[in-house]
Write a structure and sequence with these properties.
Blueprint: H1 2-6, E1 13-17, H2 21-33, E2 37-41, H3 44-53, E3 58-62, H4 70-78, E4 88-92, H5 97-106, E5 110-113, H6 118-151, E6 154-160, E7 165-168, H7 170-175, H8 187-193, H9 196-212, E8 216-223, E9 229-240, E10 246-255, H10 257-271, H11 281-298, E11 301-309, H12 312-319, H13 321-338, H14 350-354, E12 363-368, E13 371-379, H15 382-397, E14 400-402, E15 405-407, E16 411-418, H16 425-441, E17 447-449, H17 452-473, E18 477-486, E19 491-503, E20 506-508, H18 514-520, H19 523-545, E21 551-554, H20 557-560, H21 565-575, E22 583-588, H22 589-594, H23 596-608, E23 613-618, E24 635-638, H24 640-644, H25 650-666, E25 669-672, H26 678-687, E26 691-692, H27 703-714, H28 732-743, H29 748-756, H30 773-777
Parallel strand pairs: 1-2, 1-3, 3-4, 4-5, 16-17, 19-21, 21-22, 22-23, 23-24, 24-25, 25-26
Antiparallel strand pairs: 6-7, 6-10, 8-9, 9-10, 11-13, 11-16, 12-13, 14-15, 18-19, 18-26, 19-20
Helix pairs in contact: 4-5, 12-13, 13-15, 16-17, 19-21, 28-29
Bound molecules: ligand C2E and calcium ion (2 copies).
Length: about 775
Amino acid sequence: MYWADTQDSSHPRVLLVDDDEVNLILTSAALRERGFIVSEASGGEQALLALAQELPDLMVLDAVMPGLDGFTLCRRLRATPSWEYLPVLMLTGLDDDASIERAYEAGATDFFVKSPQWSLLAGRLRYLLRTARTNLELMRSRARLARAQDLARMGSFEWRPGAGGLALTPESLRVVGQALRDDDISLGAVIRLVPRRLRGGMCALLRQVWGHATVLDADMMISLRDGRQRVLHVEAEPEYDDHGVLFGYTGIVQDVTDRRLIEDKIKHLANFDSLTGLPNRRQLMWRAERALEQARRSGHHCALLLIDLDRFKDINDTLGHHAGDELLVEVARRLRSCVRHSDQVSEVTIDAMLARAPRTLEAVGRLGGDEFVALLPEVSGEVDAAGVGQRIVDVMREPVVLGGAEYFVTASVGLALFPRDGLTVADLLRNADVALYSVKGSGRNDLQVYLPSLASKGIARLELESALHKAIERGELLLHYQPKIDTQAGTLVGVEALMRWRRGDKLVPPGEFIPLAEETGLIVPMSDWAIREAARQLHAWHDEFGLLTHVAVNVPARLFERSDLAERVLDATVLHGLKQGSIELEITETGLMKSLDDVMPALKRLHAAGVAISIDDFGTGYSSLSYLTTLPIAELKVDRSFVSELGQSGQSSAVVAAIIALARSLGLRVVAEGVETAVQMTELQGLGCQLMQGYLFGAPMAPDEVVAWWQQASSRPRLGLAPAVTPIALAHAPLHAAARNVDEGVSGNDAGRLRAHPEVAPGSTGPTSAGTPLQGRSPLSR
Ligand code: C2E
Ligand code: CA
Ligand code: CA
């Protein structure tokens, strides 16, 4: 078809073929005169030679010639690929109808009756050229369309239900993967390509579109001969006859499988967590919104459960991220098993994409980190939802195998119910979080349903947490010290450091911030600080007042899990020039039992370094005591709860007696905590326990109060004790009052003021609030 590209429209090239020499000369002259570039051939054979050399824009061909005549030549042109579209004007004789007929049959573009009307001929030729060019354009654009459709895997079709049925272009046939037989191209045949389970839906859709004369715009799935499945997008517009009656549809069909898969993939990446395959935050929020909409319409309840793993950070830190990931995947699997089957797994597949089945929105998802959500779009009420929540807590308790070893991981769950606990997703999430926080605060591994009363606590807690962070930097932490007394010898054997937090004009007791500090990990720097500060204080007392003693610092179990604890204690001892062993550590029995294996190496190292370890709150751990024989410890502290019941219940005496016996057999010291009354003291002494702590002797005090207390006690001439030995009876009453106030949040200074006015002391246990009745009963005053 290149001939059309080279043509110069103002000077068209014509090949003139005529055996009549005169006619040839005249015609050619006339055409040249009118702007044509003419070449001549005097017969069919010569014309072929000329054509082979150069292809003209058109040809004027005499019909009747000796040898190869016009008709035969024309037929031959039409059969030759590069000449087939060459416009040919056949010259015939006047009134030669038969020739005209034959000329068309031979493929001539037009005919012209031989005559000397040259202008007419020239005009006809130009017209011919223009038509040829238009035809060419049409052919080209058709070819382009076909090519484009092929590239886009697209084809067009016509659907005439009344007549003719379905007509598919070759491109459309390729789109359906040549799955149709040539002799069976019908709507029925196409429908049969649709997988059986989707066929009904497809037919219903077509019926509906036809019935309402609406535009057809749908995806359909077909199975190819080789079993592969493709997604076709079909778009068609209704067509009407002159009377406005719908008679069919014209449209396109396109294979969109690849695009849909990519779209799906993108959608999936944007909406699902890549590690666990669960819906992500974004997707969850979307689903939750939908669920609430539905619940609002139908008036049922929804539940939102927030799930948080209890020791995920530990696993991640100690076993590495890989194990952490493994754990999260397992958690996701368990969560799925707790919630009724949902659609989250099948969402990527083409099947799901085309399934028009209604979706249930029920889902578990991952919010991020070790936080998960379970959305229950339709529950009968709190009991129903809490059942699921409890199931989640239970399945999480099952051991998890990570890297070949078994671990125990627990989860805490907070639950909020729509509409009771919130009308929006944001409210429900927040309140589920409040409930979750309260589980975390009270020992974890449990479910908590939201209660309005939790909310205020939650906010207070958040404030507390951020304030505690700053407390360390700002030096708001301080240590108070409580004397530890040998009641038999009348000596001060040591002090216990107890942390306080000066928050504004309040002294916050440790019970209000230590648990939070443990949870957030702040306890680690806080304990480090306490060890150093206690060492510094001990040194200062010794230098200024000659007060020699030991200080015991309370340390949580997790600090024992660190390998450098012994070094830290030694560093502090050396830094402040203290004797080895001046610093002791107290660890609670429960803390110890929880992670016995983990703390064992540190215990041994501390023991080797001469740091005495005391087991705090002893007797409350409900643990088998056999482990005690293997531990390198120095002291047991009998929990206050037993002491406070002494003299009231025989059982307490029995427990204390047993602990004392046990300690004796193991060669350990026993200290009784929380001794408030002389009765308790006597009872303890009777059982063989001399070492005591308690308000009876001295409450926890600020460092300068310790000095005052000690000086006052040692100034008692009748006892004549060495500096480290203090007559305890002197301190009892005023300090008791101070202690009560300290514990109620009065600042250290206020406590000091109160001490000067013992009469303002609140009523308290035992005969210690005023006067000195204790003196007479103290073993030291004898
Ligand atoms: P604990 O180690 O058992 O400390 C003894 C608690 O009993 C102290 O409470 C003390 O003030 C109180 N107490 C002492 N004598 C008596 C008494 O005669 N009667 C009564 N009713 N109570 C008495 P505190 O100071 O509020 O400390 C509470 C707990 O906080 C401590 O229990 C300890 O477990 C923890 N704690 C305190 N300071 C620290 C610290 O620096 N680090 C760590 N990890 N925990 C600390
Ligand atoms: Ca303690
Ligand atoms: Ca204790």
